[in-house]
Amino acid sequence: MNSEARWVVLSDGGRPTEDIYFLESAAPALRQQGATVNRITASRSLGAALVHGRTFLKRYAGANLLLCRSLSPGWLRWLERHRNSFGYIAYLIDDDIAAAANDPTLPAAYRQRMARIVHLQPRLLMLSDEVVACSEQLAQRFVAQHGHVSVLTPPLIASLPNLEHFRLPPSAPMPWKIGFHGTRAHLTDLLYLAPALTAVQQGRSDTQLEIMLGKHTPAQLAGLPRVKTPDPLPWQAFRSYQASCRLHIGVAPLLETPFNQGKSFIKFLDIAAMGGVGIYSNRYPYTEIVRHGENGLLVDDAPKAWQAGLIQLLDNPEETARMAAQAARDAFAMGDSQIAAAFWRLRQGRLS
Predict the structure, then answer these.
(1) Would you say residue 348 has pLDDT above 90?
(2) Would you say domain 6-155+336-351 falls under CATH 1.20.1640.10?
(3) Global confidence as pTM
């Protein structure tokens, strides 16, 4: 291995992507083996790109670069002029940006932001030696556009909690906590579950539902009994919250849309990180990792099926706890950060 390998994440602000797939997973191991790793914020100002670009070139010429999702036009033009001054460049992508830009169910501002990235994406691909996608289906979207496309599934960068929240005295009723911690991009998916969640919250008194959408929580869900709707959190604040939050059940609906088809199984890791067992849509990517009844439930696209899945877990606490424990073991194995470290180490050894 090249003990003097250098890596620079040239960041346009996609901190979760950068942390999950590189900075908080692979980078610590790479540093231990002699590599240097830096994250540089690429300002959106053209003038800043020119000024800071000169400093960047002096300091990081020859380094390997990691581009995540996007790059400002000023920095993109600068990098095109100086491409030969750097080593290996990877383009890391964890969403089907083109599908998002054309999905009428997504928020308009989000679609517009994705459309701007789509416009720049061919240039990012031209700059890069390799496209690194978070799932096999997303990788397939780029095969016709780039000659070197690889898959790096999401690493687990959160600590896994013990499952003490499942262990209560027999005389104490289980205060079940059900959670949805998706973004507004999954609002349509959540709305599909509204009848199931409504039936559970109105039909029982032992469940608390948390939907982290704040003011964007659908009114029919926000008005249910025992519902909490905390505001979405910035990335670092969410990580702290995730480390302290305990779930029994997480719901991860994923309807059949072009945008959803490019998703990774990261929600499996997120739910395990909060100590829960998940109920997932019975489709890719969850069909690749969820073994129904062992480490989660796979359910079809019908609210009644989601309601039945919830009732199954609620009425069988010992089995639910067993599934949560197996989900944690599987998340630990499939999300091992050493897998990501080996992935990037191979590239620095071959291409530095």
Answers:
(1) no
(2) no
(3) 0.93
